[in-house]
Write a structure and sequence with these properties.
About 20% of the residues are buried. The protein is built from 3 helices and 9 strands; from the N terminus they run E-H-H-E-E-E-E-E-E-H-E-E. With about 170 residues, the chain is α+β, with helices and mostly antiparallel strands.
């Protein structure tokens, strides 16, 4: 019923810049504040640059073990393959943004609970094949939300229409 979508990602400086840019900006701003009389903030620019380097390696060079290097759909399920070779079923979180030419996804692993941030831009300047990225964006927009099992913590509590409850 659904076509399989295979989206391999490749290293890309532009996506790395987009991921690390806010951290570099914060590092420069905190360095400026440190130089202008707030010396106790001296470790902050270094910590922010470490975070910028991590985001660059995660989204730009795809060099960390928990980096998503391939996205694949199978029916109504989305799978992420990591640089370590591990493959996990994921779901796009509510903070994901999908636009006409790009996608910024916050993927959450179903079995591990890890969060995998992914920035997708179309080739030739981006990190994903343009046609496969277009298919994935359509799939993400049109796919019905997954059914979430509801857990009734109080088996004696019954919910009636209108969300009125009646306890026995």
């Amino acid at each position: 019923m659904y076509n399989r979508i295979d989206l391999p990602l490749r290293p890309c400086g532009l996506t790395g810049l987009l991921a690390a840019g806010p951290w570099v900006f914060l590092a420069v701003a905190s360095l400026w504040i440190t130089v202008n009389g707030y010396g106790f903030l001296a470790p902050l620019p270094l910590a922010l640059l470490v975070m910028a380097r991590h985001r660059w390696r995660q989204n730009g060079s795809l060099a960390t073990p928990n980096t998503v290097v391939r996205l694949t759909t199978r029916g109504q399920r989305l799978f992420a393959e990591l640089a370590s070779g591990y493959q996990e079923e994921v779901r796009a979180s509510a903070d994901s943004r999908i636009a006409g030419r790009y996608a910024v996804l916050g993927l959450r692993g179903l079995s591990s609970g890890h969060r995998y941030p992914v920035i997708l831009l179309p080739a030739p300047r981006g990190n994903a094949p343009a046609n496969a990225l277009r298919q994935l964006r359509v799939w993400l927009r049109l796919m019905p939300p997954p059914a979430t099992p509801t857990v009734n913590k109080n088996p004696l509590k019954r919910t009636w229409s209108g969300d009125n409850t009646h306890d026995h």
